[in-house]
């Protein structure tokens, strides 16, 4: 049997050497492929939070659903988006269009859509659950969809909207998370290798105060208003009697709607989407913790999740090193068979003897 095994291995090795590889490359813009290859992350996640309740805060749900729609369109799957909504405007009895949420009075886009997956809803949206989510300390029995399963290769987008003040953001109009608590949670994420780079984006009054305490590396932060400034709404829909969306998120969405999954827009462009004459408030940006130049960072590094793919129709030889012996794995994509070739005859015999002795 051993002789037969050796003969098979020799034939397989000879076949692999004569097998020609045929490769088909995806047709992506060269600039996009080059920028992605420079990126240091391997996956993307998004944590999107609307922290306020009640009908008159309709715009906050429109805010978060607008960002949700954009990141999903650009490639981040629902399995890697954690959506927290403190109230359900789509089913509110005051909503004249049940099951629908719009971010514009002209009703161009129903941001609630047909496939929104809300992970934390209503009274589940609490400071405790939000901090547990970020730090990976969810309680036993928590559903997989309610966990942030990131690692050291993850680029994470955290988007917050609601009512805030100097150094805090209100949750459910009953509790607050402070900027120090946010900084501590992000520090734990870094220490536990739960992110590679982090984009912190917040639309609320005095929003810039929420990133003041950050000290962890690889964080890029943008806020809709500076300390002492209010973040204003954009326009009202007379038919429902409430504001539809906040100004900063409105212009951010306007920019994101023009972005394609393989586009060449950069984070530097995104940071300028809402000048003061449009936002009324002053957009705050913090870049001192971020080591890369935003003008060289594709916007899809945080808002998308599409990687250049190389399709190989031939056989791939992979050499794996080991202390005792090296072996070569040959994968034939045509018949889906795995063939393993040991490095030398002596090593094959030695391992065979060890296996035989253990069985005895």
From TrEMBL:
InterPro entries: GPI_transamidase, Peptidase_C13. Coiled coil: none annotated. Residues 1-20 form the signal peptide. The keyword Signal applies. The active site is at 163, 205 (nucleophile). GO terms for biological process: attachment of GPI anchor to protein; GPI anchor biosynthetic process; proteolysis. GO terms for cellular component: GPI-anchor transamidase complex. The keyword Methyltransferase does not apply. One of its GO terms (molecular function) is GPI-anchor transamidase activity. Belongs to the peptidase C13 family. This is GPI-anchor transamidase isoform X1.
């Amino acid at each position: 049997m051993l002789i037969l095994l050796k003969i098979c291995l020799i034939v397989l090795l000879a076949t692999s050497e004569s097998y020609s590889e045929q490769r088909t490359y995806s047709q992506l813009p060269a600039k996009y492929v080059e920028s992605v290859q420079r990126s240091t992350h391997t996956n993307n996640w998004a944590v999107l939070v609307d922290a306020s309740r009640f009908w008159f805060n309709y715009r906050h749900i429109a805010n978060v659903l607008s960002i949700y729609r954009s990141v999903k369109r650009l490639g981040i799957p629902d399995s890697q988006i954690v959506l927290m909504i403190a109230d359900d405007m789509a089913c509110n009895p005051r909503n004249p269009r049940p099951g629908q949420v719009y971010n514009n009075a002209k009703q161009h886009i129903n941001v609630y859509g047909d496939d929104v997956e809300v992970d934390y809803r209503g009274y589940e949206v609490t400071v405790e659950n939000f901090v547990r989510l970020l730090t990976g300390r969810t309680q036993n029995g928590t559903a997989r969809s309610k966990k942030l399963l990131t690692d050291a290769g993850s680029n994470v987008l955290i988007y917050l909207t609601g009512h805030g003040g100097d150094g805090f953001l209100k949750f459910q109009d009953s509790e607050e998370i402070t900027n120090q608590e946010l900084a501590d949670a992000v520090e734990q994420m870094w220490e536990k290798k739960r992110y590679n780079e982090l984009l912190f984006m917040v639309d609320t009054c005095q929003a810039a105060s929420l990133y003041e305490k950050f000290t962890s590396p690889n964080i890029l932060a943008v806020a809709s208003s500076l300390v002492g400034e209010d973040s204003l709404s954009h326009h009202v829909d007379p038919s429902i009697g409430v504001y539809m969306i906040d100004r900063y998120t409105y212009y951010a969405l306007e920019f994101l709607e023009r972005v394609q999954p393989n586009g060449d827009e950069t984070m530097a462009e995104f940071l300028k989407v809402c000048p003061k004459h449009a936002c009324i408030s002053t957009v705050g940006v913090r870049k001192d913790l971020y080591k890369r130049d935003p003008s060289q960072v594709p916007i899809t590094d945080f808002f998308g999740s599409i990687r250049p793919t190389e399709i190989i129709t031939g056989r791939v030889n992979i050499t794996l090193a080991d202390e005792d012996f090296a072996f070569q794995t040959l994968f034939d994509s045509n018949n889906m068979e795995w063939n393993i070739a040991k490095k030398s005859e002596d090593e094959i015999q030695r391992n065979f003897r060890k296996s035989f002795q253990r069985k005895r």
